[in-house]
């Protein structure tokens, strides 16, 4: 008689992980100094794209001469006022109360839309000069995902420095196209997006430029502008919360305690205050692309980011050197965004491992919040592009700006819908708490509950004494 067939091994679902296990260097474990310096420079390159895109879009709309100065002075005043919102909500602990109500289910759409919601800055910008943008995407994917498995001995180098390598190659390629006359007779828009010598960036930049407070003159204060900027500040507060959650995930830290999240928002408010004092024309928020870079490199070290900040300060003072790197064509930066924003979006989707995806309550909250987070801002943006003003168009301009700004943010709309539904729908149902994954995060609700919080989130130089985590 034949022996019975061996019993097929029963498949088991993947285990839930509080921390990502494949991260090479977590928040508190720095890589060797040479590697850390290169990684820090890579963070600087990634950040540079957004730094150039914002003034490139804003400054032409301000005009030149006294018009420009008037707008800058008004923007300075609005930023100074708006900074108080985050400073008060953060350092007072008010935002901690809100964050404590976040569950993995409500955090998933918020974090996902922080990344995926920036899709218009990806391939649409790549396509503005597809002959250099598309090669950057293909080369970056090949260097970071395929070559490390084909060349195991050098796999780590390709994986961690794929952006530096790919940008260097494609930037050189774009330079040869520029000096070779490929865009000599091209349309002005094509030349602007493709050339490496556009707008006289290097020639017009000073060798040394030290920023100082009120460099555009004394700030002016207008109630309408201040209220509109406060609305933008509140949107940045919500989006930054999603960014903080993604960063803690990719740095292989434990889920960020609400008190730490609130403290971070307070410090971000201080950053916005400095923006207003120094006249940067825009406020501060979490850098989504740098958060995605943590996932791409699998290095979440705090030291690397500190080194990156040093590069930012250094090249901001030495204008010529900073202008050289700023000459990287925008489609190359947009190609990088296609990967980095995707990583941040997937950090949000990853929180669904804590939830019961077989629950119809979960399916409704997740699907409806994601859909509305994409659909509502699309309506506001389409309406504005056609009519020249937002759907909310009353006689009060500051009120119009407040509402239109808030509902144009995909992360805010999707996160707000998920937060409201998750905390009100079937709240008394005993299974809802488990389905939404809230019990997985219970032990991280207080700074002192989990011993790992001290390692990851304590401030240096005994600053916890002055900025405690309650």
Automatic annotation (TrEMBL):
Any GO molecular function: transmembrane transporter activity
Residue ranges of the TM segments: 37-58, 78-95, 161-183, 304-326, 332-352, 364-381, 401-421
InterPro entries named in the record: NCS2
Keyword Membrane assigned: yes
A Pfam family reported for this protein in Swiss-Prot or TrEMBL: Xan_ur_permease
Record keywords, A-Z: Membrane, Transmembrane, Transmembrane helix
Main localisation: membrane
GO-annotated cellular components: membrane
Membrane topology: Multi-pass membrane protein
Protein location: Membrane
Family to which this protein belongs: Belongs to the nucleobase:cation symporter-2 (NCS2) (TC 2.A.40) family.
Protein name: Nucleobase-ascorbate transporter 6
Gene expressing this chain: gb10428
